[in-house]
């Protein structure tokens, strides 16, 4: 509430908005590396080699409340992230007049749920009973989830992005996996730092893609043994990073139930999963 009331967006701010467990860590790594590539090349002392992406691109609320003006957020353009649903963003971020930009990353609801279940199982305090897959799934289907129901979150940003395409870049985890180079180029262009022909020829996009890949980040000391803040153990952020892993955990009945809900809530808006 404090952030919503007091945060003042600037014209060239870039907000990365993501539903939890949809690829926030990956998008932060990519956006940071693309935006700051004049200062840091992937092969030489890149900050991602020693810092977790969540340290380099802070969550808006945390940065604001900590008055964290020492990190990249102090530079221009400021880059931060949020899980907050669109309707609850600070008004100045949504403002048409200010014109700051929002990158939204969406992931299919099945993988998002499975990823969240694994994550919250690991992050759950020892004094609480484990949350069974069945109970967690039931809550997810009823919309009981951090930052609200999946469908409200995605549609909130999706509808706005259709109305104001110049303010939004809507990406999907699946597209990024399928063709990282193409979507990194879109991201660079949207952030106002398009790759030059020389950079393309030199293979810089591929280099950044490799640097930010889950296989690379997972093996770095900072992500094997480090923590972000007092609670987050970095290694819990890197699991499989695959598309379609849900087939290994969801029963046909679960899929049928979630399919029905997604159809009911999201049909007719032009989004398919
Ligand atoms: P899985 O649990 O399906 O493996 P978030 O960053 O929003 O918390 O999302 C976590 C999901 O993104 C996890 O998915 C995690 O493995 C995956 N992930 C983390 N870093 C990634 C990267 N560099 N590339 C692709 N996926 C990544």
UniProtKB/TrEMBL annotation:
Keywords: Hydrolase, Transferase. Its EC number is 2.8.2.-. InterPro entries: P-loop_NTPase, Sulfotransferase_dom. Signal peptide: none annotated. Residues 12-270 form the Sulfotransferase domain. One of its GO terms (molecular function) is hydrolase activity. Pfam families: Sulfotransfer_1. Belongs to the sulfotransferase 1 family. This is Sulfotransferase.
